[in-house]
Specification:
heterodimer; A: 338 residues; mainly alpha; MetI-like fold; 2 domains; two-stranded antiparallel sheet; globular; B: 326 residues; 12 helices; 0% strand; elongated
């Protein structure tokens, strides 16, 4: 078990390395010079050239990637903080420390000052949504799957298909039209400040959370339903019914635990899709989170910020994948992890 | 590692892209039963093993869900094809007189947008774009992902290791993040979106095809073809692949639907296909600036996207149910 986890953690680090290199390579496609973007359109050509030299932008891609890794691990100093550049980029943590993601050229701040605050906001939004998606999907999924073909099953299944067909930005538009424009019950934006419209912080979460829950639970409900229906057709369920147990006891004691094995992995993997969904939802409601920051950084070509955001998102995604594999092994006695 | 294949295959079953694992299994079992039920008496012509069950697509009309889905897709296809002959406004003509009161009227059935352009005409012309890009991109992704999955599943060993590790890395990315980084760097255009779909969906397709191939490659009909000394290519393309059609058709429909969603999202994020081509996601985004006054500007394009995606998802669900009895 421990060697299994160790191997997987090594694989995780490998994935992060290759993925961050790929992102580095993709940003190469971007037209325009990194130095010019950093300094803005009005900077003098000499300072652009100086920065170009300082950043060694004419080096090959792998060389620059290794240098970025060096800055990240604290082996070499961040070249952007060199006072000779007169950029006034100063990280209070110093220019050489472990976990130095460099300087965001978009926000003119150390990446570490930009990213964690927004990541916290996103985690809050995703966390509330996740806490609702899981119980809702489990309840409705089991209700639908325990009597396959019943009216309740048909209704829940159709709802599931419809919900997965409405992308977040579309359901955002629908919900805003109803609850903000027509009924004036809720705020249409969620800047997480209480000034301006006078809406409470809690009310600003209602619509973004609703959008995420609608889209994601449609999928999970269908997974849980399929798995429950599959278990309910097994001989041991028939045995349990024939030996006189009440239907409720059969479902609760015999079916649910076995039916949860497959959806368990899917539910944990939902976190990966939740991250995707959050990017879009944050744009709909102007929510100050990680997804919006990533979009802005990508459009600007702020490579330090893109790399940091990708690494964090990937770390979250791969860790949940590892957890889901481990949980699957624990839940399913047929799987032995060696 | 082999023992953990099951959960990591579920990983592939990422989003709406995939049929649920417990639901894939019965299909594979059914397929193997069909293969076993075929005459296997010594001396019987080996070709008899290839007896095909009734055509999956021919039985589609028996599924009401699939028919509703086909009707939704069909409506948009007909509108898109007829767009040049329908009495529609030029989708890019700005009617400044209607801007004062842009709501639906006899002249503009669905109203005009923020720049005074006819929304109905833009929706129908937008359907031409989305109905070209999404299926074409999904087919391209299949043309890349399917051979990789077949090779990995059929040969196993090092081929499998390389293909699986590479696709693991791509699949580890939250999909939209991959799209945003890619498209914001290479720019939005028809071919770049196709490229992005191939890159993001190809590994997932490969993963499913690999799983299906692994289930099938030890079955008798494959052994029979190998004994006949058929080439590997023949076994993979003519024997294995058609037996995986149920889950693959389901996945294809879901994937087209998800590609439509993705193109919509890109448009909404400001990374849509460049003007003058009307793009549904971009229309939603433009409309949101006036949503508090004229919600119809973003509501109609949003409804258009949902109806088309729903069509593909319903067909996928119908095919999945049919393929369980295939």
């Amino acid at each position: 078990m421990i060697t299994f986890i160790g191997k997987r953690l090594l694989g995780l680090v490998g994935t992060l390395l290759i993925a961050s290199f790929l992102v580095f390579a993709v940003t190469e496609f971007s037209p325009g010079n990194v130095a010019r973007k950093t300094l803005g359109p009005f900077a003098a050509q000499e300072s652009v050239d100086l920065l170009y030299q300082k950043l060694h932008l004419n080096d090959s891609l792998p060389v620059r990637y290794v240098r970025w890794l060096g800055v990240l691990t604290g082996v070499i100093a961040d070249p952007l903080q060199d006072p000779a550049l007169k950029l006034d980029f100063k990280d209070p943590r110093g220019d050489r420390y472990f976990g130095n993601f460099g300087y965001s050229t978009l926000y003119k701040l150390p990446v570490n000052d930009v990213i964690w605050n927004r990541l916290g906001n996103t985690a809050l939004l995703a966390g509330i949504s996740f806490a609702l998606i899981v119980p809702l999907s489990l309840i409705f999924g089991v209700l639908a799957g325990m009597r396959e073909g019943s009216f309740l099953d048909r209704t829940i299944s159709v709802f599931g298909i419809v919900a997965t067909s409405i992308p977040e930005f579309a359901s955002g538009v629908f919900l805003v039209a109803i609850f903000v424009v027509a009924l004036r019950l809720l705020p249409g934006t969620s800047p997480l400040t209480t000034g301006g419209g006078g809406w409470s912080l809690a009310s600003q979460f209602v619509l973004p959370v609703a959008v995420l829950v609608l889209y994601d639970s449609g999928y999970v409900v269908r997974m849980v339903r399929g798995s429950t229906a599959e278990v309910m057709s097994k001989p041991y369920i028939r045995t349990a019914i024939l030996k006189g147990l009440s239907f409720k006891t059969v479902v609760w004691r015999h079916a649910v635990r076995n039916a949860m094995i497959a959806p368990f992995t899917v539910i944990l993997l939902q976190i990966n899709f939740l991250i995707s969904g959050v990017v879009v939802t944050e744009m709909v409601f102007a929510y100050p989170g990680f997804g919006r920051m990533l979009l802005e950084a990508s459009l600007f070509g702020d490579i330090a910020l893109i790399e940091a955001a990708t690494l964090v998102a990937l770390a979250v995604a791969t860790t949940t994948q590892l957890l889901s594999d481990l949980g699957y092994a624990l839940l399913n006695p047929q799987i032995r992890v060696g | 590692m082999a023992s953990t294949d099951a959960p990591s295959d579920v990983t592939a079953l990422g989003r709406p892209e995939l049929p649920a694992p417990p639901e894939v299994m019965p299909d594979a079992v059914a397929a193997s039963l069909t293969a076993l039920a075929a005459p296997t008496a010594p001396g019987a012509p080996v070709a008899a093993l290839g007896t095909k069950p009734p055509n999956l697509l021919r039985r589609l009309p028996t599924s009401p869900i699939a028919m509703v889905g086909l009707a939704l897709i069909g409506t948009w296809v007909v509108l898109a094809v007829l767009a040049p002959v329908l009495p529609l406004d030029d989708p890019n003509r700005q009617d400044f007189l209607s801007l004062g009161n842009p709501v639906p009227s006899a002249k503009h059935w669905l109203g005009v947008d923020i720049k005074g352009r006819d929304i109905l005409s833009r929706l129908i012309h937008g359907a031409r774009t989305v109905l070209t890009v999404a299926p074409f991109a999904a087919i391209c992704a299949y043309l890349v992902g399917m051979p990789l999955g077949l090779l990995a599943g059929y040969y196993g060993g090092k081929v499998d290791l390389v293909v699986s590790r590479l696709s693991d890395i791509i699949l580890a990315f939250p999909i939209i993040i991959l799209y945003v980084i890619l498209i914001s760097q290479i720019g939005p255009s028809f071919w770049n979106i196709v490229l992005a779909v191939i890159l993001t969906a190809g590994p997932g397709i490969g993963r499913i095809v690999r799983g299906l191939t692994l289930e099938q490659r030890h079955l008798d009909y494959v052994a029979a073809a190998q004994l006949r000394k058929e080439s590997d290519l023949y076994v993979m393309a003519v024997e294995l692949l058609p037996n995986c059609r149920g889950p693959l058709i389901t996945d294809f429909c879901l994937r087209v639907g998800y590609t439509i969603i993705t193109i919509g999202i890109l448009g909404f994020l400001g990374l849509g296909l460049p003007p003058p081509d009307p793009d549904w996601g971009t229309m939603v985004k433009e409309g949101t600036t006036l949503i508090s006054v004229h919600p119809h500007m973003s509501l109609f394009p949003a409804i258009a996207i949902v109806s088309l995606v729903l069509g593909f998802n319903l067909v996928a669900d119908g095919v999945r149910e049919l393929s369980l009895t295939d």
